[in-house]
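Justification of computing resources. Each target in the renewal requires a structure prediction run like the one illustrated here; the chain below, 380 residues long, is used simply to show the kind of job we budget for.
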Amino acid sequence: MKVVHVVPSIAAEASGPSYSIPALCRALARRDVDVDLHVLAPAPDLSEPHFTIRAHPALPVVGRLGISPAMRQALRSAATTLDVLHNHSLWMMPNVYPAAAVRGTRCKLVVSPRGTLSAWSLRRSKWSKRAFWWAGQGAVLRAAACFHATAEEEADDVRRAGFSAPIAVIPNGIELPLPAQTGAPPGELRRLLFLGRIHPVKGIDVLLRSWRAVQAGAPDWELVLAGPDEDGYLAKVQALAAELGVERVRFAGPVYGAEKSACYRQADLYVLPSRSENFGMTVAEALAHGIPAIVSKAAPWSGLDTHDCGWWVEFGDAPLTDCLRTALALSPAELRARGTRGRAWMERDFSWDGIGMRMHETYTWLTGGGMAPPWVRVTR
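Resulting structure tokens:
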């Protein structure tokens, strides 16, 4: 089976797709799928041993759109011999080229919205997206033989957008680190960690207001905010922290690789109070490190309650404040027990080998017919 994946960029290490899409390609390659990944240049590493990464130059005009005649031609040429062309994300030209590429071929188009069809995302730059929709993005979605959603909530977004093609609901996977003791080093404050992009969608303003409400009752805790600044939002967050008069808040900046893993290991509790998430890769990462998590219901993590490894709460100041009061009062042993259950859940249901198997079987069904796999929604 020959498959090409397309995503505008894998250059941002802090971005979930920059990790999950190459990891998915790797998992498929381990199943003897012939995989190429097409991206815009620059790509961080072209020496991937399991599959081929092809980076295409973009024109310097209207840089945000990622206009690349080289990518368009390469996809069109490749599609004549492909079984599946799998597009990730929307709203850039690399996400428009796949529909034209598969036209008139036997190649099946799969589309992963990656959160771009959520209500919150559609409200952002609404008029620009409407124009882009009529310029070609809508045609891509109408041409999809199958959608891929990382959670049931994202599948609902696809249906609300009016599309009736089958939807494969397959989560992102996670690579489990070696087991290790977690929590703040002896003699230091216990750590409530947020790790992710410093961006309005992440609900950091809500977190700061809730932290101010609970800080007096949790004198042995500190709040650590780690992640890269996006569009200058860090300055606004720091100004809000000063205005609120919050205490024991530390801005750790971006963390990658081993430093990122150490950041998780030194935390006692993870928090993601997002306004919108199609998956929330950092939640899986925290759980894989054995850290329990508090996550808003704008992210698809109901399993935190089901598996008793954290808290899934309504979005907003009051629900998060109430949850923090409960969680910060627990002993280190009680939090570690929840973290242990979370890691076991990740190991059982989110291994990349299992995710690769499900995606491969989805492709096989899509190209060969027969009974749909159980994770595929065939009808509305």
